[in-house]
């Protein structure tokens, strides 16, 4: 998988990709992540990338020309399955979206900044818009890191135990059941006896029942 991330501040995103699972995925050749500074396609001698909005209003808008040139150049080099704009008014990221994107080959993530991007960029290029929650960040860079992490960890060969991803919260529209490890008893709190029984059928039933119980308590909307 190749992900191209377009940003005003690409250096803000470099660190997460140099550690842990994301680093491992790239070292194994399972994922490529390339950062592109939109100022490399800026307008005029002052390298302008933003301007005041037509019709007035607060804030600055990312200009259509630099973004169009950047995305068009990338599209001329390869075919992209999705060109994704990270924006608060996009579809809220969930596990289903991450699963779907994980089987794609080439993706572009466009990080919004300032007050947003010229609508014509969305009309010309964007195929999908994603939000990571109902709140506003300074820019789309952190959202792009969240999206990349949620997708790349699902690629075959990235996790040491590939079955682990299949039991994550939300994979089956349920939150995770309680999990325990040694010691068996700590400060008066003991591991449920069923988990020590060796009866794997009964353990799986308990895990499912607990996942349903917790989901009903915390996220009943997932069961609708």
UniProtKB/TrEMBL annotation:
Its EC number is 2.1.1.228. It is an enzyme of class 2 (transferase). S-adenosyl-L-methionine binds at residues 112, 132-137. It comes from the Bacteria. Its main location: cytoplasm. Pfam families: tRNA_m1G_MT (PF01746). Homodimer. Residues 1-224 form the tRNA methyltransferase TRMD/TRM10-type domain. This is tRNA (guanine-N(1)-)-methyltransferase. It catalyses: guanosine(37) in tRNA + S-adenosyl-L-methionine = N(1)-methylguanosine(37) in tRNA + S-adenosyl-L-homocysteine + H(+). It is found in: Cytoplasm. InterPro entries: Alpha/beta_knot_MTases, tRNA_m1G_MeTrfase_C_sf, tRNA_m1G_MeTrfase_TrmD, tRNA_m1G_MTases_N, tRNA_MeTrfase_TRMD/TRM10. Gene3D superfamilies: 3.40.1280.10, tRNA(m1g37)methyltransferase, domain 2 (1.10.1270.20).
């Amino acid at each position: 998988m190749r992900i191209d991330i377009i940003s005003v501040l690409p250096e803000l995103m470099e660190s997460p990709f140099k550690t842990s699972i994301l680093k491992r995925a790239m070292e194994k050749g399972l994922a490529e992540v390339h950062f592109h500074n939109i100022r490399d396609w800026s307008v005029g001698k002052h390298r302008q990338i933003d301007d005041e909005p037509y019709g007035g209003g607060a804030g600055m808008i990312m200009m259509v020309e630099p973004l169009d040139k950047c995305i068009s150049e990338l599209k001329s080099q390869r075919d992209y399955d999705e060109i994704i704009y990270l924006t608060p008014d996009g579809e809220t990221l969930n596990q289903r979206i991450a699963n779907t994107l994980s089987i794609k080959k080439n993706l572009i993530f466009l990080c919004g900044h300032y007050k947003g991007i010229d609508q014509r960029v969305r009309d010309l290029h964007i195929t999908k818009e994603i939000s990571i929650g109902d709140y506003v960040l300074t820019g789309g860079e952190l959202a792009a890191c969240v999206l990349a992490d949620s997708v790349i960890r699902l690629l075959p060969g990235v996790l040491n135990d590939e079955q682990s991803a299949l039991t994550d919260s939300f994979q089956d529209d349920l939150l995770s059941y309680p999990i325990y490890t040694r010691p068996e008893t700590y400060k008066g709190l003991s591991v449920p006896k069923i988990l020590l029984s060796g009866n794997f059928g009964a353990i799986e039933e308990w895990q499912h029942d607990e996942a349903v119980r917790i989901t009903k308590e915390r996220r009943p909307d997932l069961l609708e």
